[in-house]
Structures are given as structure tokens and as C-alpha cells.
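Minutes, project huddle
Topic: does the predicted pose make sense with pyridoxal-5'-phosphate bound?
PN asked that the exact inputs be recorded in the minutes so nobody has to dig through chat later. Recorded below.
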Amino acid sequence: MDKTIYFDNNATTCVAPEVREAMLPFFGELYGNPSSMHAFGGQVARHVQEAREKVAAFLHADPAEIVFTSCGTESDNMAIRGSAEVLGPTARVITSRVEHPAVLGPCRRLRDQGHREIEIPVDGAGQLDLEALREALKGGAPAIVSLMWANNETGVVFPMEPIAALVKAAGAVLHTDAVQAAGKIPIDVRRLPVDMLSLSGHKLHAPKGIGVLYLRRGTRLKTFMLGGHQENGRRGGTENVPYIVGLGKACELAAAHLEAERTLLARLRDKLENGLLATCPDARVNGDRQNRLPNTTNLSFEYIEGEAILYHMSDLGICASTGSACAAGSLEPSHVIRAMGVPFTAVHGSVRFSLSRYNTEAEVDHVLEHVPRIVRKLRDLSPFGKGDTLPVEL
Ligand SMILES: *Cc1c(COP(=O)(O)O)cnc(C)c1O
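Predicted holo structure (C-alpha cells), as shared on screen:
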């Protein structure tokens, strides 16, 4: 194995060299506290403000609507739990069956605490059942709705415009987890009436450990990180200055390259996907191929285990995933794939490839050269119906 071929960019991305460069001074001479009264801290505060402006520009938001957090998970928790606390114990909590654990976790905690929680189903293509959403929104009680913009496992993109129209018409509060959408499809909060939106740095070529909650002006939220007056009193704690600066740079890069990257990534992804479908019998794509992120493909190889494929790919330096890294290691089939009603013979054989701007055509060719052979060998050892799916030496 000479080089890592990284097709797991929905799990995390590399830090862009420009982002790393932008961060370095804040680990060195620019170490002041942005809240300090002296000019030494004040110059750092200006860099934090510039980063806030870059993140805001990326979303077409106002800089005052940007709250820096420690990660996407914190942003999701803050939005859902913070609104439920404002709306009170009668508030319904509406989400979908295919959300990231960072959304499902807080929603289910609220259910345990007595809220009525509704998880909207998806169809076989992973698309939200809008009729079920309409039904769930009926009735007078207040509601917080949290629906992801794009799915981390399948790349399926929910129709946020009709969703937002339905939710706002019902007078409910709308949060969207846009962690996977950011940098891959355009986001414009002027045109989309979401109240809150989550981002995570490390899915966007910034470091792990920095996130954003976009909080539309006027949105009421009880904050749970109580402390200093940072982030306008919405999230206490001294600012993570280097990472905030890095995320600002990452958003600037994402905005500048979005259109060109979308085309490039979709072309590479389609080549990979079509190549695997053509060379591996009994392979299928999981999820809506029309309404999907340009960088993601989730394929099921029937009758074999996704984990076994990953294990053999890993020997060749190829990194992919069986759905969500958070569920990995459990050997339970992914809740997303199950919610889509994928046939029994295919639920265990799902593999996700997720690309970034740093992937090349030569890397796609390398995967196409080796993966069909891996699948063939595993199938030979796992005859139809037998279900002998232990990893084996090739
Ligand atoms: C990765 C991810 C998160 C969590 O973000 P962290 O910064 O890792 O906490 C939330 N939602 C989705 C859809 C994700 O892909």
C-alpha cells in the first residue's frame, strides 16, 4: 500500500492547506483573548469578526445570526433542546427516521421527558413522506421540526423549499442539519425560511471541533452553555479563535469553488458508481439518484457484508464506509438503510463512497480496478442464501 485513497469525506475531510495556513498565527503570536479590553486582544477580535462575516456570506445570512459552537452535534442539540425549552412541555418534536444521531439523540431525549415525538418515514428512495409531515403538523400545539438537508449515508437531499413552506405555514419552528449540504449544494437563508441551521467545520475542510448554528434574527432559544457574554450571550465560553478563523477560510473556499466542484465531483462519482454497477452483478444504488449530493454514492452488494468489503479495500489503502461512522463497529445494519426498506439480502452489503475536491480520476480508476474482484471473491465464499459473511483472506 503506497498511498491512501480517501473516499470517506462524509465522515470527515482533510484540512485544506489554505485553512491550515490561515490558522497558524493564532497558535503563535496572535494568542490574545478577543474579549480583552487591550488592543492585543482587540486585534484577535477583529479576526473573529471577519470569520463571522465569511460564514455569514457563505449562507447569505447576517453576521449577527452566526453562533460559533464546538461541533455539528452541539449545534443540533442547541437548536432542538433550546427551542423545546422555549416552546414548553406541550411542544411536539418532529423529525425523520433517517436523521444523524446528533438530531435523533436530543429528539428521543425530549420524548423520554414527556414531549410527543414524531419520526417521519421515508420511501424506498430515502425521500421524506411529505404527506406524513403535513399530518404531523396538524393541531394547535407548538412544534419544533428538525429535518436534515442532505443525508450523510446516502447523500439524498430533502426538498427543503416545500418542507419549509409547510412547516412555516403551520407556525412551527424549523431547524435543518445542513452539515452534509454545506459546500456541496448552494445554501441561501434569504430564500429558505429556516429558523436555524447547523454546520460542522470538519465536513468542510476545516478542523474537527468547530461548528456553527445559524440563528435567524428573532428566533427564540434557551441556551444551555451558560457562562460569559460570548456569541452575544448565546453561547458562553472563550472563543476557539484558530478554529473559528479556519472555518471562515473554509467557507470562503467552499463558496468560491462550489459550482466548479459540483460538476467535477458528480462526474467522478458517476464514473465510480456506473463502473461498479457495470462490473459487479447484484449491486444497487441506495437512495434517490436524482436528488442527491454530487459527492456521495451508497451501493449495496447483495449477499455479502459491507464490512468485509471495507476490510479488503482497507488493505489496498482505499477508505470508504458502511454508512455512518457513528454506527460503525456495531454491526447493526444502518437505521437509514433499514428505514428505506432495502431488501434483507442487501441491508448488510451497503458501502458508501464520498468524494471531495482532493480526489482524482486515477483514484476512481484504482477502485474500479480492485473492488469488483473483492466482491467476486467474497461472493464465491458466500453462496447465495448461505449468509457466510465472515471476513476472509483473499
Ligand atoms: C458529521 C455530522 C454531524 C455531526 O457533526 P460533528 O461536528 O461531527 O459533531 C451532524 N449531522 C450530520 C448530517 C453529519 O454528517
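Observations noted during the meeting:
- The chain is about 40% helix and 15% strand.
- Residues 71-73, 76, 100, 102, 148, 152, 177, 179-180, 200, 202-203, 211 surround pyridoxal-5'-phosphate (CB under 6 Å).
No decisions taken; revisit at the next huddle.
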